[in-house]
Amino acid sequence: MTCALIVYANGSEDMEVTAITDILNRGGIKVTKAALNDDGGLKVTLAHGTTVVCDKNLNDCADDYAVIAIPGGLVGAENCRDSTTLIAKLQEQKAKDGYIAAICAAPGFVLATHGLVGNARATGYPGCADNIENYVDKGVVVDKENKLITGQGPAFCMEFALAILEELKGKAAADEVRSGMLLTK
């Protein structure tokens, strides 16, 4: 079964993390909601006050994941950027040629800060554009060669999640979920 690791940090953007988790679940991806908490806890508070109890603490996530996805939200992205555990997991994911997905502030603050974008085409929240070398002003960018999927922000969270699903399970699976949610292209 295809597995995805979704990072939940204190301050992560509510809509983004929820859309990624929900759409991948609908598409038959086994999702692990991972709490980024140094104390080993499972509870996080998202940017707009939603409290979530995750499946595992990030420190306990050792499975092989087809994708590691990071939502934005300024505080959440800063917490992700500063997590040595997460950065090590992202570096391992890139080294094994697995997908990395990031949206909003995460591409510029997390991935670019740690050299994980490289020469890939990527997008992110427009205020982070200067951090991304090959920034593309588009809602969602999929760089297939570099296995990097990026999105600009909350308005694009469903399109971003569907792009992840399409990369992992194909266009038909993504179209089926899209249709079931009454989304049109």
Structural notes for this entry:
- 52% of the residues are buried.
- With 185 residues, this protein is α/β, with parallel strands linked by helices.
- It has a single domain (3-180), classed as Rossmann fold (3-Layer(aba) Sandwich), CATH 3.40.50.
- The longest helix has 13 residues, at 14-26.
- It has helices at 14-26, 74-81, 84-95, 106-111, 157-169, 171-180, and strands spanning 3-9, 30-36, 43-45, 51-53, 56-57, 67-70, 99-103, 121-122, 134-135, 140-143, 148-151.
- It starts with a strand and ends in a 5-residue tail after the last helix.
- The model has no long low-confidence stretch (mean pLDDT 96).
- The protein has a seven-stranded mixed β-sheet with strand order 5-2-1-6-7-11-10, sandwiched between helices. The protein has a two-stranded antiparallel ribbon with strand order 3-4.
- α1 runs parallel beside α5 (157-169) and α5 (157-169) runs antiparallel to α6 (171-180).
- It is globular and about 40 Å long.
- It has six helices and eleven strands.
- This is DJ-1 family protein.
- One of its GO terms (biological process) is glyoxal metabolic process.
Distance between the termini: 28 Å
Q: Tally of extended strands?
A: 11
> Which CATH class applies here?
Alpha Beta
Shape: globular
Q: In brief, what are we looking at here?
A:
By secondary structure, the protein is of the alpha/beta class. Helix content is 34%, strand content 23%.
